[in-house]
Each structure stands twice: as C-alpha cells, then as structure tokens.
Amino acid sequence: MVLVYMKSIVCERVSILTTLLCTLLIISCTPNKDQKWVGTWSTAQQIVEPHNMPPEPGLNGTTIRQIVQVSLGGSEIRVSLSNAFGLSPIIINATHLAPAIGGSAIIPEKNSALTFNGQSTVTIQPGDSVLSDPFLFDLKPLSKVAITMYVEKVDEQLTGHPGSRTTSFILEGNHISDLEFKNPVTTDHWYIIDAIHVKAPDEAAAIAIIGDSITDGRGSGTNKQNRWPDVLASRLQANDATKNVSVLNHGIGGNCVTRSCLGPSAQSRFERDVINQPGVKWLIILEGVNDIGGVHTEEQAEEISNSIISVYEEMIQKAQANNILVYGGTIMPFGGSFYDRPASESARQMINNWIRNSGKFDAVIDFDTSLADPENPLKLTSDGDDGDGLHPNERGHEIIAESFDLSLFTN
Predict the structure, then answer these.
(1) Residue-wise pLDDT tens digits, 211-227
(2) Fewest CB atoms less than 10 Å from the CB: which of 47, 198, 314, 318?
(3) C-alpha span between 193 and 161 (Å, rounded)
(4) CB atoms inside a 10 Å sphere around CB 222
C-alpha cells in the first residue's frame, strides 16, 4: 500500500444561506450539470524525432486515423489540435470524431464532423493550437474514440507524441468517412492531436500528471491502454466518490525536469501541460530519474538534486496559485539498471527525503515504496520490473495504480 502524507485541507462546500433560501422558497436548487470544461484526455506535445516521423506516404495529402481512450464521459465535447513546435502552418481540410470499435474501424452513423469557427478546414499557425467548436456527442466514460484528419499540409518539424503505445492508421487521399481503412500504413505514434475536453458538472475535475517514461507508459502493452494513469482512471470511474475525476497523462519518455533531454523539460512545459489544462484540480509530479541518472560524483548529485528541488518548488507555487493541489511522487528504485551508480542513488535519496519531509506538497505519494522489492528496496520488485531495472512492466503499472488512496481525489 502506498504511503500518503496529507496536509489538513478545510473545504466548505455548501452555502447555508442558499440552502435556507431554497427550503423557504420551495424552489429547485438542482445545479446546472454542464457548468464547465474539463479535460478528459490529453497528451504532452514535443518535436517528433526523425525516426518517429510518419512513415511513407507521410501526412501531406493523406488521411490519418488516431485512437485515444478518454476518462470522463459527457454529451458535449471539443477537440484541440497542436502545431506547438512547427515552423510553418499546418492545413487540415477535415476532422471527424467517432467511437472506435477495434483496429481502424468506427461506427459510421456516429462519425461527427468537426468545425473550427464554423469551417471544416483549419490552419494551425506555428507555435499555436486550435480548439474545435463544441459539438454534441455521446461520449462514454473510458471509451475509445477515433480522431480522423484529412491533412493537406504539415510542417517538416512536426508536433506530436511519439510514445502513444497506440496504433495510428494512414491512407493516401481523402478517407475521412471510411468505416475502416483498407491496407493502411500503421505507426505507433500520435501526431497533431492534443486534447479532448468535455462539458462536465461543476464538481468534476482533472488530475494532471507530469512525468517521464514511467508515466508515459514504458512497459505497458501496445493498444491495451494499461499505463498506470489508465488503470488509475478506471479505478476512479468505478468509485462513486471519484467518478467525476479525469486523468491527463503528460508523461514524455526520456524527459527531464530541469533541461531538455527528450522533449521540452518539465519546467518549460509546465504552463501548457498543467496550468492551461481546463478543470485541473490536482497535480502529480513524478519526474527526475533522467536528470539524476547520469551523475557520477557526490558533488554532481548534490548540485542536480538542488536544481530539481528548486523546480519542484517553482511548480508547487505556480500550481497552488491556481488552486491546484500538488502531490509529490517519490522517485522509484533503479538498482541494476543503466542508471545504477552510487552518486545517482545518493541523488535519489536526497530528493525523496525532501519530497517526504519538506512539507511543501499537499500530499506525498510514495511510488518508491509501492514498487520496491521488500527484500532489496534499492530495486524494483521482480513481478513489477520490465526487465531493465528501471521501468515497470504491465503488472508494475497495475501495482502503482492499485496502491493509490482514492480519497486523495475527493477533497
């Protein structure tokens, strides 16, 4: 069971005056159940590396169908597309969204055409993102949907998320309305798609998770949607007290806290991936192992640990200023991995000690304890280790998600 250290939080939810007025006047006080936008799915954006670019025929003049699994359901949604790292405009001639029923297949009668300021064609300028017009759609919780785009032009420097662990399908020409793609080119990456927002009751809220490959899903199964944030989302939906809570996975494989390793650093992407996401009430930070993995001396360990802690403090201040509760995740063991060296372990211990004892976080989620080998806590437990000593396997992702105390998300 994961250990959780929680600050005292006093929340006054009910207005006594309003309740009294409703009783005296015998009027309906049922709240509007569609009061705000909340993110139900999103992914962290980065420059797509050359070896992760779309295979031939590419995206120019082609149709790409991409599958994602949402967390919250609802009846009104909007979709965000991104050209955050592009150097020239992206032009998309049509975008549809439909329930996904396996492979590239969709339910055709529920294939909704998206508009952007009333137009089916949209141009996304470099460094920008666009939101579709809101549209009615019967979005089921934890359901899979297909986002299909007929693309006219993309930039050579493409924005996307290589670590999708979900298959995308590409065909030349316009196949926006096809029930199923015949003989498509496939690739296990996402491109351009950024987020889905759902209109939700006022009590609904999102958990944003900022992290590296462990959060991104390294060790989980392709097309299984069983990363630990996915399993957590399933647990939240199955619990009456948390079924209005969504999960936004902003992990990037190989990512660092303080500098650009793979993808923009957690520090530089914090506004986009946390503050600017609609409906975020909680933030989980589980990142730092790639920063400390390369240190070789105690002096380096102390320097890097202090830098990471400084960024943690910056994140905490920004999030709490936006009424977001911040939960610090301890860095998990990596004994036996390519990061296993005394100075790196020293840095891990320094950071974890600060996370547990600084009192800066609203709560601490002890990932270190949840997946450590009881007989050798400097290593991952054998049934949860993907084999490299660093990443959880599919069972490891389950163990992490199952160890969460869901009451953290009911305040």
Answers:
(1) 999 999 999 999 999 99
(2) 314
(3) 9
(4) 12
* End-to-end CA gap in the chain: 20
What mean pLDDT do residues 311-338 have?
98
| φ and ψ of 158, to 5 deg | -90, 140
Q: What is the pLDDT of residues 222-279, one digit of tens each?
A: 999 999 999 999 999 999 999 999 999 999 999 999 999 999 999 999 999 999 999 9
Alpha carbon distance 253, 261 (integer Å): 9
Q: How confident is the model at residue 339 (pLDDT cuts 50, 70, 90)?
A: very high
Residue 342 tokens read as 């005394």
Average pLDDT along the chain: 93
CA distances from 156 to 183, 194, 244, 281 (A): 25, 18, 39, 36
Q: What is the pLDDT of residue 35?
A: 85
What residue has token string 């990363």? Answer: 227
Per-residue pLDDT tens over the stretch 159-184: 999 999 999 999 999 999 999 999 99
| Structure tokens, 26 | 């015998």
Whether the pLDDT of residue 31 is over 50: the answer is no
